[in-house]
Specification:
The protein has 13 helices and 12 strands. The protein has helices at about 10-25, 30-35, 50-60, 65-80, 105-120, 140-145, 265-285, 300-305, 335-355, 380-400, 430-440, 445-455, 460-475; strands at about 85, 120-130, 150-155, 160-165, 170-185, 190-205, 210-220, 225, 245-250, 290-295, 325-330, 415.
Protein backbone atom coordinates (compact mmCIF):
# COMPACT_ATOMS: atom_id res chain seq x y z
CA UNK A 1 0.00 0.00 0.00
CA UNK A 2 1.45 3.38 -1.02
CA UNK A 3 2.05 6.03 1.62
CA UNK A 4 1.97 9.61 0.36
CA UNK A 5 3.28 10.82 3.72
CA UNK A 6 6.58 8.93 3.30
CA UNK A 7 9.57 11.21 3.87
CA UNK A 8 12.79 11.00 1.89
CA UNK A 9 15.77 9.74 3.98
CA UNK A 10 17.66 12.99 3.32
CA UNK A 11 14.65 14.93 4.54
CA UNK A 12 14.52 12.94 7.79
CA UNK A 13 18.27 13.37 8.23
CA UNK A 14 18.21 17.17 7.91
CA UNK A 15 14.81 18.11 9.31
CA UNK A 16 16.03 18.64 12.88
CA UNK A 17 18.95 20.77 11.63
CA UNK A 18 16.57 23.07 9.78
CA UNK A 19 14.42 23.40 12.91
CA UNK A 20 17.50 24.25 14.98
CA UNK A 21 18.48 27.12 12.71
CA UNK A 22 14.87 28.32 12.59
CA UNK A 23 14.64 28.43 16.38
CA UNK A 24 17.89 30.35 16.72
CA UNK A 25 16.84 32.85 14.05
CA UNK A 26 13.49 33.39 15.80
CA UNK A 27 15.32 34.60 18.90
CA UNK A 28 15.41 34.17 22.65
CA UNK A 29 11.79 33.18 23.24
CA UNK A 30 11.98 30.32 20.73
CA UNK A 31 15.32 29.08 22.08
CA UNK A 32 14.27 29.23 25.72
CA UNK A 33 10.93 27.67 24.81
CA UNK A 34 12.80 24.47 23.87
CA UNK A 35 14.26 24.35 27.43
CA UNK A 36 16.57 21.35 27.79
CA UNK A 37 16.92 20.90 24.01
CA UNK A 38 19.36 23.82 23.90
CA UNK A 39 20.19 24.30 27.60
CA UNK A 40 20.74 20.94 29.33
CA UNK A 41 20.09 20.41 33.04
CA UNK A 42 23.15 20.09 35.24
CA UNK A 43 21.57 17.13 37.04
CA UNK A 44 19.18 15.46 34.58
CA UNK A 45 18.72 12.45 36.84
CA UNK A 46 17.22 14.61 39.63
CA UNK A 47 13.53 15.12 38.85
CA UNK A 48 12.54 16.63 42.19
CA UNK A 49 10.51 19.83 42.50
CA UNK A 50 13.52 21.58 44.03
CA UNK A 51 15.79 20.57 41.13
CA UNK A 52 13.17 21.80 38.63
CA UNK A 53 13.05 25.13 40.46
CA UNK A 54 16.83 25.48 40.24
CA UNK A 55 16.69 24.75 36.49
CA UNK A 56 13.88 27.25 35.91
CA UNK A 57 15.98 29.96 37.57
CA UNK A 58 19.04 28.85 35.59
CA UNK A 59 17.05 29.10 32.36
CA UNK A 60 15.50 32.45 33.22
CA UNK A 61 18.85 34.11 34.00
CA UNK A 62 20.49 32.88 30.77
CA UNK A 63 20.83 35.48 28.02
CA UNK A 64 20.57 34.55 24.35
CA UNK A 65 22.15 36.95 21.86
CA UNK A 66 20.53 36.90 18.42
CA UNK A 67 23.78 36.95 16.44
CA UNK A 68 22.59 34.45 13.83
CA UNK A 69 19.39 36.38 13.17
CA UNK A 70 21.25 39.68 12.84
CA UNK A 71 23.78 38.06 10.49
CA UNK A 72 20.95 36.65 8.40
CA UNK A 73 19.36 40.07 8.10
CA UNK A 74 22.70 41.69 7.25
CA UNK A 75 23.43 39.15 4.52
CA UNK A 76 20.01 39.57 2.91
CA UNK A 77 20.32 43.35 3.19
CA UNK A 78 23.75 43.25 1.56
CA UNK A 79 22.47 41.15 -1.34
CA UNK A 80 19.58 43.52 -1.98
CA UNK A 81 21.41 46.78 -1.35
CA UNK A 82 21.04 47.26 -5.10
CA UNK A 83 17.70 46.59 -6.77
CA UNK A 84 17.71 43.40 -8.89
CA UNK A 85 17.55 43.58 -12.67
CA UNK A 86 14.10 42.46 -13.78
CA UNK A 87 13.06 42.01 -17.41
CA UNK A 88 9.83 40.29 -18.45
CA UNK A 89 7.49 40.32 -21.46
CA UNK A 90 4.23 42.21 -21.03
CA UNK A 91 2.32 38.92 -20.74
CA UNK A 92 3.96 38.42 -17.33
CA UNK A 93 3.52 41.93 -15.94
CA UNK A 94 1.51 40.58 -13.01
CA UNK A 95 4.61 38.88 -11.56
CA UNK A 96 6.13 42.23 -10.70
CA UNK A 97 3.40 42.90 -8.15
CA UNK A 98 1.99 39.44 -7.39
CA UNK A 99 4.29 36.55 -8.20
CA UNK A 100 2.89 33.81 -5.95
CA UNK A 101 -0.83 34.57 -5.93
CA UNK A 102 -0.67 35.76 -2.32
CA UNK A 103 0.51 39.30 -3.01
CA UNK A 104 4.28 38.81 -2.87
CA UNK A 105 6.25 40.43 -5.66
CA UNK A 106 9.11 38.63 -7.35
CA UNK A 107 11.47 40.92 -5.43
CA UNK A 108 10.03 39.81 -2.08
CA UNK A 109 9.95 36.20 -3.24
CA UNK A 110 13.68 36.30 -4.02
CA UNK A 111 14.44 37.79 -0.60
CA UNK A 112 12.58 34.93 1.07
CA UNK A 113 14.41 32.44 -1.14
CA UNK A 114 17.78 33.78 0.02
CA UNK A 115 16.69 33.47 3.65
CA UNK A 116 15.73 29.84 3.06
CA UNK A 117 19.08 29.05 1.44
CA UNK A 118 21.06 30.58 4.29
CA UNK A 119 18.97 28.82 6.95
CA UNK A 120 18.24 25.45 5.31
CA UNK A 121 20.70 25.14 2.42
CA UNK A 122 17.80 24.64 0.00
CA UNK A 123 14.34 25.75 -1.03
CA UNK A 124 12.27 25.11 -4.16
CA UNK A 125 10.40 26.98 -6.88
CA UNK A 126 7.25 25.56 -8.45
CA UNK A 127 5.23 27.12 -11.26
CA UNK A 128 1.53 26.33 -11.64
CA UNK A 129 -1.43 27.54 -13.65
CA UNK A 130 -5.20 27.38 -12.98
CA UNK A 131 -7.02 24.33 -14.29
CA UNK A 132 -8.42 26.05 -17.39
CA UNK A 133 -7.98 25.49 -21.07
CA UNK A 134 -5.52 27.51 -23.17
CA UNK A 135 -6.63 31.05 -24.03
CA UNK A 136 -6.81 32.29 -27.60
CA UNK A 137 -5.86 35.88 -26.70
CA UNK A 138 -4.95 38.15 -23.75
CA UNK A 139 -8.53 39.34 -23.30
CA UNK A 140 -9.81 35.78 -22.90
CA UNK A 141 -6.98 35.04 -20.49
CA UNK A 142 -7.81 38.03 -18.29
CA UNK A 143 -11.49 37.10 -18.32
CA UNK A 144 -10.58 33.69 -16.89
CA UNK A 145 -8.39 35.30 -14.23
CA UNK A 146 -5.80 32.71 -15.19
CA UNK A 147 -2.22 33.68 -14.44
CA UNK A 148 0.89 31.55 -13.97
CA UNK A 149 2.29 31.80 -10.45
CA UNK A 150 5.70 31.07 -8.92
CA UNK A 151 5.47 29.38 -5.54
CA UNK A 152 8.40 29.40 -3.14
CA UNK A 153 8.59 26.24 -1.01
CA UNK A 154 10.73 25.81 2.07
CA UNK A 155 12.92 22.74 2.49
CA UNK A 156 10.45 21.49 5.09
CA UNK A 157 7.55 21.55 2.62
CA UNK A 158 9.10 19.18 0.06
CA UNK A 159 9.02 15.86 1.93
CA UNK A 160 9.86 13.44 -0.88
CA UNK A 161 11.42 13.45 -4.35
CA UNK A 162 12.94 11.13 -6.91
CA UNK A 163 14.68 11.33 -10.29
CA UNK A 164 14.76 9.32 -13.50
CA UNK A 165 17.26 9.26 -16.35
CA UNK A 166 15.63 9.89 -19.74
CA UNK A 167 18.13 9.61 -22.54
CA UNK A 168 21.15 11.36 -21.07
CA UNK A 169 19.20 13.74 -18.83
CA UNK A 170 18.35 13.33 -15.16
CA UNK A 171 14.85 14.68 -14.48
CA UNK A 172 12.64 14.83 -11.45
CA UNK A 173 9.87 12.27 -11.78
CA UNK A 174 8.34 12.63 -8.31
CA UNK A 175 7.86 15.59 -5.98
CA UNK A 176 5.63 15.42 -2.88
CA UNK A 177 4.70 18.77 -1.32
CA UNK A 178 3.09 19.03 2.11
CA UNK A 179 0.53 21.86 2.17
CA UNK A 180 -1.62 23.38 4.88
CA UNK A 181 -5.13 24.45 3.85
CA UNK A 182 -7.27 26.68 6.07
CA UNK A 183 -11.04 26.29 6.24
CA UNK A 184 -13.46 28.70 7.89
CA UNK A 185 -15.61 27.15 10.60
CA UNK A 186 -19.40 27.09 10.56
CA UNK A 187 -19.50 30.01 12.99
CA UNK A 188 -17.83 32.18 10.36
CA UNK A 189 -14.89 33.11 12.59
CA UNK A 190 -12.90 30.07 13.66
CA UNK A 191 -10.28 28.61 11.33
CA UNK A 192 -9.26 24.98 11.00
CA UNK A 193 -6.05 23.97 9.25
CA UNK A 194 -5.86 20.73 7.34
CA UNK A 195 -2.89 19.03 5.73
CA UNK A 196 -2.89 17.86 2.15
CA UNK A 197 -0.20 16.55 -0.18
CA UNK A 198 0.38 17.75 -3.72
CA UNK A 199 2.09 15.07 -5.80
CA UNK A 200 3.89 16.08 -8.98
CA UNK A 201 4.82 13.20 -11.27
CA UNK A 202 6.54 12.70 -14.60
CA UNK A 203 4.76 9.66 -16.02
CA UNK A 204 5.61 7.38 -18.90
CA UNK A 205 2.75 7.65 -21.39
CA UNK A 206 4.25 5.20 -23.89
CA UNK A 207 6.37 5.39 -27.03
CA UNK A 208 9.21 6.90 -25.01
CA UNK A 209 7.11 9.97 -24.12
CA UNK A 210 6.63 11.41 -20.64
CA UNK A 211 3.96 13.76 -19.32
CA UNK A 212 3.73 15.91 -16.21
CA UNK A 213 0.76 15.21 -13.91
CA UNK A 214 -0.63 16.65 -10.66
CA UNK A 215 -2.65 14.89 -7.96
CA UNK A 216 -3.74 16.22 -4.57
CA UNK A 217 -4.19 13.81 -1.65
CA UNK A 218 -6.53 14.56 1.26
CA UNK A 219 -7.44 12.52 4.34
CA UNK A 220 -10.90 10.99 4.48
CA UNK A 221 -13.08 10.73 7.58
CA UNK A 222 -11.65 7.24 8.05
CA UNK A 223 -8.10 8.60 8.21
CA UNK A 224 -7.06 7.29 4.79
CA UNK A 225 -5.12 9.44 2.33
CA UNK A 226 -6.93 9.43 -1.02
CA UNK A 227 -5.96 11.14 -4.27
CA UNK A 228 -8.42 13.45 -5.95
CA UNK A 229 -7.62 12.34 -9.49
CA UNK A 230 -4.69 13.16 -11.72
CA UNK A 231 -4.64 16.25 -13.89
CA UNK A 232 -2.39 16.79 -16.89
CA UNK A 233 -1.43 20.47 -17.33
CA UNK A 234 -0.81 21.83 -20.82
CA UNK A 235 1.11 24.88 -22.03
CA UNK A 236 -0.19 27.76 -24.14
CA UNK A 237 -0.19 25.60 -27.27
CA UNK A 238 -2.11 22.79 -25.57
CA UNK A 239 0.94 20.51 -25.37
CA UNK A 240 1.72 18.45 -22.28
CA UNK A 241 4.87 19.18 -20.31
CA UNK A 242 7.78 16.79 -20.76
CA UNK A 243 9.23 17.78 -17.38
CA UNK A 244 7.99 19.01 -14.01
CA UNK A 245 8.14 22.84 -13.76
CA UNK A 246 9.82 22.54 -10.40
CA UNK A 247 13.41 23.14 -9.32
CA UNK A 248 15.36 22.92 -6.11
CA UNK A 249 17.49 25.95 -5.29
CA UNK A 250 20.63 25.23 -3.28
CA UNK A 251 23.42 27.12 -1.57
CA UNK A 252 26.02 25.33 -3.73
CA UNK A 253 24.03 24.17 -6.76
CA UNK A 254 20.43 23.58 -7.80
CA UNK A 255 20.55 19.79 -7.67
CA UNK A 256 18.56 17.41 -5.45
CA UNK A 257 21.53 17.02 -3.10
CA UNK A 258 21.21 18.32 0.47
CA UNK A 259 24.10 19.69 2.52
CA UNK A 260 24.60 21.68 5.70
CA UNK A 261 23.07 25.15 5.72
CA UNK A 262 25.47 28.13 5.54
CA UNK A 263 24.22 29.38 8.91
CA UNK A 264 24.35 26.00 10.69
CA UNK A 265 27.87 26.41 12.11
CA UNK A 266 27.07 29.93 13.27
CA UNK A 267 23.87 28.58 14.84
CA UNK A 268 25.75 25.93 16.81
CA UNK A 269 28.28 28.49 17.99
CA UNK A 270 25.44 30.84 18.95
CA UNK A 271 23.91 28.09 21.09
CA UNK A 272 27.28 27.30 22.71
CA UNK A 273 27.60 31.00 23.55
CA UNK A 274 24.09 30.82 25.05
CA UNK A 275 25.11 27.95 27.32
CA UNK A 276 28.23 29.86 28.42
CA UNK A 277 25.99 32.82 29.16
CA UNK A 278 23.79 30.64 31.38
CA UNK A 279 26.83 29.46 33.35
CA UNK A 280 28.16 33.00 33.64
CA UNK A 281 24.86 34.43 34.85
CA UNK A 282 24.56 31.57 37.34
CA UNK A 283 28.03 32.39 38.64
CA UNK A 284 27.17 36.08 38.93
CA UNK A 285 24.02 35.26 40.88
CA UNK A 286 25.60 32.89 43.39
CA UNK A 287 29.10 34.31 43.69
CA UNK A 288 28.71 37.98 42.87
CA UNK A 289 27.12 39.05 46.18
CA UNK A 290 29.35 39.97 49.18
CA UNK A 291 29.34 37.54 52.13
CA UNK A 292 29.49 38.90 55.69
CA UNK A 293 31.44 36.94 58.28
CA UNK A 294 32.32 37.24 61.98
CA UNK A 295 35.04 35.64 64.13
CA UNK A 296 35.46 35.18 67.88
CA UNK A 297 31.74 34.59 68.45
CA UNK A 298 29.75 31.61 69.61
CA UNK A 299 26.19 30.46 68.94
CA UNK A 300 24.89 32.19 72.08
CA UNK A 301 26.04 35.56 70.74
CA UNK A 302 24.60 34.74 67.33
CA UNK A 303 21.19 33.79 68.77
CA UNK A 304 21.15 36.94 70.93
CA UNK A 305 22.02 39.10 67.95
CA UNK A 306 19.13 37.64 65.97
CA UNK A 307 16.72 38.35 68.84
CA UNK A 308 17.87 41.95 69.08
CA UNK A 309 17.75 42.49 65.28
CA UNK A 310 21.37 43.48 64.81
CA UNK A 311 21.74 45.46 61.60
CA UNK A 312 24.69 45.62 59.22
CA UNK A 313 25.43 48.76 57.22
CA UNK A 314 26.28 52.42 57.49
CA UNK A 315 25.06 54.64 60.32
CA UNK A 316 24.64 51.71 62.73
CA UNK A 317 26.85 50.41 65.52
CA UNK A 318 27.59 46.72 65.32
CA UNK A 319 28.28 45.22 68.76
CA UNK A 320 30.88 42.48 68.71
CA UNK A 321 32.48 40.63 71.63
CA UNK A 322 35.95 41.33 72.92
CA UNK A 323 38.66 39.96 70.58
CA UNK A 324 36.00 39.36 67.92
CA UNK A 325 36.02 40.76 64.41
CA UNK A 326 33.61 41.35 61.55
CA UNK A 327 34.30 41.54 57.82
CA UNK A 328 33.09 41.10 54.23
CA UNK A 329 34.31 38.34 51.94
CA UNK A 330 34.23 39.22 48.24
CA UNK A 331 35.01 36.42 45.80
CA UNK A 332 37.47 36.96 42.99
CA UNK A 333 35.83 37.43 39.58
CA UNK A 334 35.12 34.15 37.85
CA UNK A 335 36.33 34.98 34.35
CA UNK A 336 36.37 31.50 32.84
CA UNK A 337 32.77 31.53 31.54
CA UNK A 338 33.13 35.18 30.55
CA UNK A 339 36.30 34.50 28.57
CA UNK A 340 34.61 31.57 26.86
CA UNK A 341 31.78 33.90 25.84
CA UNK A 342 34.24 36.45 24.45
CA UNK A 343 36.05 33.80 22.42
CA UNK A 344 32.80 32.55 20.90
CA UNK A 345 31.67 36.10 20.21
CA UNK A 346 34.80 36.75 18.17
CA UNK A 347 34.41 33.42 16.39
CA UNK A 348 30.83 34.30 15.46
CA UNK A 349 31.98 37.62 13.98
CA UNK A 350 34.60 35.88 11.89
CA UNK A 351 32.20 33.15 10.81
CA UNK A 352 29.67 35.75 9.66
CA UNK A 353 32.36 37.44 7.59
CA UNK A 354 33.35 34.17 5.93
CA UNK A 355 29.82 33.88 4.54
CA UNK A 356 30.64 36.93 2.45
CA UNK A 357 34.32 36.61 1.65
CA UNK A 358 36.66 33.72 1.08
CA UNK A 359 38.94 32.70 3.94
CA UNK A 360 39.04 33.93 7.53
CA UNK A 361 38.58 37.51 8.59
CA UNK A 362 37.92 39.58 11.68
CA UNK A 363 35.26 41.70 10.00
CA UNK A 364 31.51 41.42 10.18
CA UNK A 365 29.50 40.57 7.10
CA UNK A 366 28.56 44.18 6.38
CA UNK A 367 32.13 45.40 6.90
CA UNK A 368 33.72 43.14 4.31
CA UNK A 369 35.18 44.89 1.27
CA UNK A 370 33.77 44.18 -2.15
CA UNK A 371 36.87 42.57 -3.65
CA UNK A 372 37.47 39.60 -5.92
CA UNK A 373 37.11 37.14 -3.06
CA UNK A 374 33.41 37.89 -2.80
CA UNK A 375 32.90 36.21 -6.16
CA UNK A 376 33.52 32.84 -4.47
CA UNK A 377 31.61 33.48 -1.26
CA UNK A 378 28.68 31.52 0.08
CA UNK A 379 26.39 34.51 -0.34
CA UNK A 380 27.49 34.97 -3.94
CA UNK A 381 26.77 31.32 -4.78
CA UNK A 382 23.33 31.58 -3.21
CA UNK A 383 22.55 34.67 -5.24
CA UNK A 384 23.74 33.11 -8.51
CA UNK A 385 21.62 30.00 -7.91
CA UNK A 386 18.53 32.08 -7.13
CA UNK A 387 19.09 34.12 -10.29
CA UNK A 388 19.26 31.00 -12.44
CA UNK A 389 16.25 29.35 -10.79
CA UNK A 390 14.01 32.43 -11.00
CA UNK A 391 14.97 33.09 -14.62
CA UNK A 392 14.07 29.49 -15.42
CA UNK A 393 10.77 29.85 -13.50
CA UNK A 394 9.98 32.96 -15.56
CA UNK A 395 10.47 30.91 -18.71
CA UNK A 396 8.03 28.30 -17.38
CA UNK A 397 5.50 31.05 -16.67
CA UNK A 398 5.93 32.36 -20.19
CA UNK A 399 5.30 28.88 -21.57
CA UNK A 400 1.81 28.99 -20.07
CA UNK A 401 0.87 32.31 -21.71
CA UNK A 402 3.02 32.63 -24.86
CA UNK A 403 3.10 30.50 -28.03
CA UNK A 404 6.87 30.50 -28.63
CA UNK A 405 9.06 30.82 -25.57
CA UNK A 406 12.22 29.79 -27.42
CA UNK A 407 12.41 33.19 -29.09
CA UNK A 408 12.89 34.96 -25.74
CA UNK A 409 16.45 36.04 -24.93
CA UNK A 410 18.06 37.46 -21.80
CA UNK A 411 17.23 40.92 -23.09
CA UNK A 412 13.54 39.92 -23.01
CA UNK A 413 13.39 37.97 -19.76
CA UNK A 414 15.86 38.03 -16.88
CA UNK A 415 15.96 38.21 -13.09
CA UNK A 416 19.33 39.04 -11.60
CA UNK A 417 20.26 39.98 -8.05
CA UNK A 418 23.43 42.05 -8.00
CA UNK A 419 26.59 40.55 -6.50
CA UNK A 420 27.94 43.96 -5.56
CA UNK A 421 27.18 43.29 -1.91
CA UNK A 422 29.02 46.30 -0.55
CA UNK A 423 28.55 49.59 -2.30
CA UNK A 424 31.80 51.39 -2.98
CA UNK A 425 30.23 54.75 -2.30
CA UNK A 426 30.68 58.08 -4.03
CA UNK A 427 34.27 59.00 -4.95
CA UNK A 428 34.90 62.61 -5.93
CA UNK A 429 37.99 61.77 -8.02
CA UNK A 430 36.09 59.14 -9.97
CA UNK A 431 33.25 61.59 -10.57
CA UNK A 432 35.76 64.12 -11.91
CA UNK A 433 37.27 61.52 -14.24
CA UNK A 434 33.83 60.58 -15.56
CA UNK A 435 33.06 64.25 -16.22
CA UNK A 436 36.34 64.78 -18.08
CA UNK A 437 35.66 61.63 -20.13
CA UNK A 438 32.21 62.95 -21.03
CA UNK A 439 33.64 66.32 -22.08
CA UNK A 440 36.06 64.50 -24.39
CA UNK A 441 33.20 62.47 -25.87
CA UNK A 442 34.38 59.08 -24.58
CA UNK A 443 31.40 58.56 -22.27
CA UNK A 444 28.02 60.18 -21.69
CA UNK A 445 27.03 62.92 -19.30
CA UNK A 446 24.04 60.75 -18.44
CA UNK A 447 26.35 58.14 -16.89
CA UNK A 448 28.21 60.83 -14.98
CA UNK A 449 24.92 62.23 -13.68
CA UNK A 450 23.63 58.80 -12.58
CA UNK A 451 26.90 58.08 -10.78
CA UNK A 452 26.58 61.35 -8.85
CA UNK A 453 23.06 60.39 -7.85
CA UNK A 454 23.65 56.78 -6.78
CA UNK A 455 27.41 56.36 -6.26
CA UNK A 456 27.32 53.38 -8.62
CA UNK A 457 27.88 52.90 -12.33
CA UNK A 458 24.64 52.52 -14.29
CA UNK A 459 23.99 48.99 -15.55
CA UNK A 460 23.94 49.20 -19.32
CA UNK A 461 25.64 47.66 -22.33
CA UNK A 462 28.45 49.24 -24.30
CA UNK A 463 26.02 49.83 -27.17
CA UNK A 464 23.62 51.69 -24.86
CA UNK A 465 26.40 53.92 -23.59
CA UNK A 466 27.60 54.61 -27.14
CA UNK A 467 24.05 55.53 -28.13
CA UNK A 468 23.90 58.00 -25.23
CA UNK A 469 27.18 59.55 -26.39
CA UNK A 470 25.88 59.90 -29.97
CA UNK A 471 22.64 61.50 -28.81
CA UNK A 472 24.52 64.05 -26.73
CA UNK A 473 26.85 64.82 -29.64
CA UNK A 474 23.92 65.37 -31.97
CA UNK A 475 22.57 67.89 -29.53
CA UNK A 476 25.86 69.76 -29.80
CA UNK A 477 25.94 70.26 -26.06
CA UNK A 478 28.99 72.45 -25.32
CA UNK A 479 30.11 72.42 -21.69
CA UNK A 480 33.67 73.57 -22.32
CA UNK A 481 32.81 77.26 -22.06
CA UNK A 482 34.57 78.05 -25.31
Amino acid sequence: MSDVTFKHPEYVKNQHLWSRVDDVCKGQDAVKGKTTTYLPRNNPQDRSVEAQGFYDSYLQRAVFYGVTSVTLGSLVGAAFATDPTFKIPTALDHLERNANGAGLSLYQLSQSALRHLLKHYRCALYVDFPDVGPSRNRAEEKAKQAYPMIHLLSAKAVINWDTVTIGNQVKLNLVVIEESVSERGQDGFSVESKTQYRVLRLEDVGHGEFAYTIEVYAKTDKGVWVGGGRKIPTDYNGDTWTYIPFTFVGAVDNSVQVDNAPLLELTDLNLAHYRDSADFQESVYYMGQPQYYATGMDWNWFDEARKRNVYVGSKVILPIPLSGSFGIAQVEPNTLAREAMKDKWQQMKEMGARLVEKGTANKTATEADNDSAVQHSVLSLCVVNINEALTMALRWCAKYVMPNVDTLTKDDMLYEISQEFNKQGYLADLSRQLFESAVQGHSSFKSWWEYNQSGMFPKQTYEDEQANVDIEKEGRLDLTGE
